[in-house]
Amino acid sequence: MSRFPSFCLVLLAAACSRGEWATEFPVDKSTLTSVGENRFLPLRPGARQILKKDDTELVVTVLAETKVIDGVETRIVEERESRAGKLVEISRNYYAIDTATGNVYYFGEDVDEYRDGQVVGHEGSWASGANGAKFGLMMPGNPALHARYYEEMAPNVAMDRAEIVEVKGVFGWIAGWFQDCVRIEETTPLERGRETKVYCPGAGLVRDGDLHVSEVTVP
Description:
16-stranded antiparallel β-sheet, 2 helices, 16 strands, globular, disordered N terminus
């Protein structure tokens, strides 16, 4: 039996064993699709999470739309953030799932920043295959404790990376408790600090930094 977790075998066993950040994802693009099941990151159109903290609200919705990025048909997941009832950002994120492993890969995002109802910028936008950017891993099909990997690799634009720090967590919210949740610590070499995200089976994203889920819809 291999001494490496199955997740590491899908990525780079050597990188996982040394605690390095995986940057290469040897996936056959022919097995990637915009439709599929990952229990921590559902890509079913209509799936939605609403996360809140004080006057900040984030609505994450899996759209019925797709877009071809870097030769792959990806599913569009919209994130709509508002503060005090005013829209501050809409991002359209592009994901594809590997039917062989259940891994969900991140192919980029289009960002619209808003002020007083008008688009004022697009900071953070990137696409795999353009300007040296490459797709990253957003959620493994079989998350392994201490796995480390880049979620996005767009030089000088977006370089978020993730470390799985818990795989059997419990998360409480207004309707009860989620079991067997995955907790991820995100960092980036572009700036200091870290952010916690929590994903739970059948629900998807339930915590994003200080924002906590208040409503979940999974068709």
